[in-house]
Design goal:
The protein is α/β, with parallel strands linked by helices. Helices cover 16% and strands 26% of the residues. The strands form 3 sheets. It has a 6-stranded mixed β-sheet, with no helix packed on it. Strand 2, helix 3 and strand 3 form a beta-alpha-beta unit. Helix 1 runs parallel beside helix 3. The termini are far apart.
Length: 257
């Protein structure tokens, strides 16, 4: 069939917009461990992480990995249940690696919660050399009291890079959740302090789970896989006590007195 020469209707429409996507910063080049960590995340919160698109960021390494190593790492992540879709902007070596892997390069990828550079910052033709990776902080032990019916109680601050997970029950925190930290529960999450990191309730699909906190400044909140990031949250409720729940497919956030 020959198309009508006067038919100017396009077959597709291409638009560029803001898309929620995760950035996986590699701080240790250990493909097996990275895959195991990501597989555990998928098992804990499948509605949040299963088949999630991720950008792989090698900027935390002292040198760019070779093609075979990077290809093995990406294959391991796919086997774990996530979908690496691009490499994060970096050095010329990373640009060459992206071409070899046939992956796009996302220039100057920035997570939603990271501050934007100021206008006074000088323009740079090339990014500064990556800092050497920092050793991971020791995991703060979880503290639980009583029976499972009252939920898991955590009394220590949750700091950047740390994660606390309450399997099959609610999670109650009496200290702050810092930026870069993550708290997850199969039930509801109760935070009697500031929330500056990420809170995920109903991790295994419980749509009736809720999030409560005394001081709301979250990077991300999610219930049963539906989520909101900081830029989607009205400024008027930041710093306030809030309750968060799922209304159909929509996250609702309401200030509490």
């Amino acid at each position: 069939m020959v198309a009508n020469e006067f038919d100017f209707e396009p077959a597709g429409e291409l638009k560029f917009g803001q898309v929620g996507i995760a950035n996986l910063k590699v701080i240790r080049l250990d493909a097996a461990r990275l895959a195991a960590e990501m597989r555990e995340r998928v098992l804990r919160a499948p509605k949040m992480f299963e088949h999630a698109a991720v950008v792989v960021d090698f900027g935390g390494l002292s040198q760019c990995p070779d093609v075979d190593t990077a290809r093995g790492l990406i294959a391991g992540l796919r086997d774990a249940g996530v979908l690496p879709v691009a490499l994060s902007y970096g050095t010329r070596d990373i640009e060459h690696l992206a071409r070899a892997l046939q992956l796009p390069l996302l220039a100057k990828f920035r997570a939603q919660y990271e501050p934007a550079p100021t206008d006074s910052a000088p323009a740079r033709a090339e990014p500064r050399p990556p800092e050497p990776p920092k050793p991971p902080e020791p995991q703060v032990p979880e503290q639980s009291i009583g029976s499972d019916a009252i939920g898991q109680v955590h009394t220590q601050p949750v700091r950047s890079g740390q994660q606390v997970y309450a399997r099959g029950r609610d999670l109650v925190l009496t200290a702050a959740v810092g930026a870069g930290a993550e708290v997850i529960a199969d039930g509801s999450v109760h935070i009697y302090a500031a929330l500056r990191g990420r809170a995920l309730a109903g991790a295994r699909g419980n749509t009736g789970a809720r999030i409560f906190c005394r001081e709301f400044a979250a990077e991300l909140v999610a219930i049963a896989g539906r989520y909101k990031v900081l830029e989607d949250i009205p400024p008027a409720i930041r710093g306030k006590a809030v309750q968060i729940w799922l209304d159909g497919e929509t996250i609702r956030i309401e200030e509490q007195q």
